[in-house]
Amino acid sequence: MPTLAKRAVGALLALLGVVLTVIGLWYAIHLGGGGTATFSTTASGANPVLVPQTVLNRIDGVVKVTATPRSGGTVWLAAAAPSDAKAVLGRTAHTTVTGVSTRPWQLQSTTSGSGAAPALSTTDVWRNTETGDGAVSMTIEQANAPESVIAQATRGQLERVELTWERKSWFVQSVIAALVGLFLLLSGLSLLWSTRPRRAVKATATATTLGTATTTGTPTTPGTPTTTTLPATREEENA
Asked: Could you write out the DSSP letters of every residue in 167-230?
């Protein structure tokens, strides 16, 4: 493979390794050893928050829904069939969770409707309900899917809604991704190092060789005749 092509491959491997290592470490740090992913959103005051089945039932696993009221408030959580939850809310003002974002680890949401929602706890469509003065949690299992959850402040206002998924394999996958990225990074740097320009090294070696030859050789002046001494014959020795 030509040197230029090797350097291009090395740079590509190094870049891919950096990206993969950063992503793997990012997820590993946020997920922790238990593989716990928690996403939160700032609730819109007195508006109830709807967590639809498109979010709750997206992953085949248990999801924990937690609603926290502002200081002095009381929160209410309920699970119901998606059609029943939408029918109860109707066109009143409410916030709907539409997805998750792993960069800020937040829930994505939209607000729609107008007018204050009624006291939803008085209806009889709920499969399960929880209420409390502080943070209230509810566990949603996929065996009951499809299912939606509504959070509403019965006194005061909502401060935050959180969704938590836990899967240990996520942490393992993150670590593996980081290790693969580190391997690609080292491979790319090694390839770049092996194909680095060596002109300076060759020039130094040539200069050293020429200097040695000049020091050890016998200089000859141009135009000076060369005298050759021959060994003496026996007649010359006797004379």
From this structure: -HHHHHHHHHHHHHHHHHHHHHHHHHHHTS--HHHHHHHHHHHHHHHHHHSPP--TTPPPP-PP
Phi, psi of 71 (to 5 degrees): -50, 125
Residue from 160, 139, 144 nearest 65 by CA:
139
The 3-state DSSP composition of the chain as helix, strand, coil percent (nearest 5) reads 40, 30, 30
Instruction: Kindly give the interhelix angle for 3-31 and 168-194, rounded to the nearest 10 degrees.
Output: 160
What letter represents residue 54's amino acid?
A: T
What is the rounded distance in angstroms from the CA atom of residue 180 to the CA atom of residue 168? 19
Q: How many angstroms separate the CA atoms of 13 and 16, rounded? A: 5
196, HSE (Cβ side, Cα atoms, 13 Å): 10
State the Cα–Cα distance between residues 61 and 188, nearest whole angstrom.
39
Token digits of residue 116: 């204050």
Q: Alpha carbon of 64 to those of 28, 44, 184: distances in Å?
A: 20, 20, 37
pLDDT digits (tens, 9 = 90+) for 127-167: 999 999 889 999 999 888 899 999 999 888 899 999 999 88
Q: Report whether the peptide linkage leading into residue 82 is cis, meaning its omega lies within 30 degrees of zero.
A: no
The span from the CA of 149 to the CA of 140, in Å, is 9
Please tell me the pTM assigned to this model: 0.71
